[in-house]
Amino acid sequence: MFDALGDLVAYRLLGLAAGSPAGDAVHFFVMDLAKIFVLLIAVIYAMGLLRAMLSPERVRSFVRDRPDWQARGLAVTLGAVTPFCSCSSVPLFIGFVEAGIPLGVTFSFLIASPMINEVAAVLLVGILGWKLALLYIAAGLVVAWVGGIAMQWFKPERWVEDYVWKIRMGESRVPRPDTSLRGRHRYAAAEVREILRRIWKWVIIGIAVGALFHGFVPTGWVVAHLGDGQWLAVPAAVLLGIPLYSNATGVIPVAEAMLGKGVAVGTVLAFMMSIAALSVPEMLILRKVIRWQALALFAGVLMVAFTLVGWGFNWVA
């Protein structure tokens, strides 16, 4: 259905030649635009029905007063299945500190939360296949777990801003949520509107970039510079992702185009992770609660982890 829509717009309505760079780019853009937004609406609504009772306060209550290994496992899991992105980092960070949760566990949550979510997972399965989806999710979980441990080893408490330690958030006194079917429907519909409002432009930009890459970048050049055996391509992909701002959902069309042109799987995974968890806006938001030393350490740990993940997958692929 989506492929037929791409054919209709690119080749019939616009009269572009099949196989031409412009024709392929427009076909890719229209097909992915329709496919991704249909999947987005369906998945966000379905998860909203299930997530009507979830809140940041509940997330931190799940993690509080547990052994380190158990708290870290819960933090990574909750980070992967909750909708919180970098814009939620500051209040969640403060809430975790106030609850007495170790900072290493908090950093594991902050790594997993923007990098992995169920919407991106479903889109990855629908667009790139279940194998790459599992690779991305597994790698993200490992990076979040090990990255938090690495941060904790350096004792980052000394680099937390003083005001954070003085804050006592207390428990939120919000009205009891409406858990009836109608109430859950209203919540899910509101989730669709809110999440789409927040990410639609980044998804369209990602699709446009992917379409241009798919249509106009020669396959031979990509294979020669970004294919298997190009060791420098992985750290270059990580560095390239830092100034870009998107999320795991918005970068999927770019990853699809890169894979279609022959870019190595590990290089694509490293690029996706860098954009989702290591972007400049994410760092600037975190700077509000941690000092530059901790921020530099956090970025360094993630850069090394993403590079090792990319090299590892390129080696075994």
Task: State the gist of this model.
With 317 residues, this protein is mostly helical.
Structural topology:
Elements: H1 2-13, H2 21-50, H3 56-63, H4 68-81, H5 89-98, H6 103-115, H7 118-128, H8 130-153, H9 162-166, H10 181-216, H11 219-226, H12 233-241, H13 252-260, H14 265-277, H15 280-286, H16 292-316
Helix pairs in contact: 1-2, 2-7, 2-10, 3-4, 4-6, 4-8, 5-6, 6-8, 6-14, 7-8, 7-13, 8-16, 10-13, 12-14, 12-16, 13-14, 14-16
Please outline the major beta sheet. none
Instruction: Kindly give the count of domains.
Output: 1
Q: How far from one another are the termini?
A: 32 Å
- pLDDT < 50 stretches: 168-174
> Count of helices?
16
Percent strand: under 5%
Please provide a written account of the structure.
There is one protein chain. Helix content is 74%, strand content 0%. With 317 residues, the chain is an all-alpha fold. The chain has one domain.
